[in-house]
Amino acid sequence: MNAHFINIKVDREERPDIDKIYQTAQQMLTQRTGGWPLSMFLTPKDHIPFFGGTYFPMESKYGLPGFKGLLTRVADFYQQERESIAQQNDAFLMSLQSMNQQVAPNEATELNAKPLETATKQLHQSFDLQFGGFGSALKFPHPSNLEHLLRQDLNTNCIQNQAMNMVDLTLSKMALGGLYDQLRGVFYRSSVDR
Question: The whole model's pTM is what?
């Protein structure tokens, strides 16, 4: 780490504002939900994130690269691909700017269900049909996702109970899988199994 990077540790409890920035960046860069621990790699000159991830095991496993090897690959990639990183950073900054554009106070904004429907579709696309949850191994329970799906299930436009089916399968598999402590009867924050 010290050979290639200036390492900065941010306590998310003390600086939730900084955590929010980098969680958003990680989601934009990887198209995956955020989480902790979060490792972000920023360009040294302008401090723009160009790569990140929420968990990397010490050695390669679970389909994830080992952290030591990843550090070398990121350093090499930065040295060899500065132009593509600069282009990615430009696109990243434009996306951030478009997210932060505010509606003029005199413009009327129509509220509708489209954002909720889009969120449900996105959850459905990342849903693990075999083991429940969203994405693949290294799974984290996301109560807000399940709550959203429960609310959507109440909506009559939700086709074929797919929202309730996702919640039911996820909770059932959580109770049978590595997230559940059979002795203490509690759920852990994450699991390395699918």
Answer: 0.52
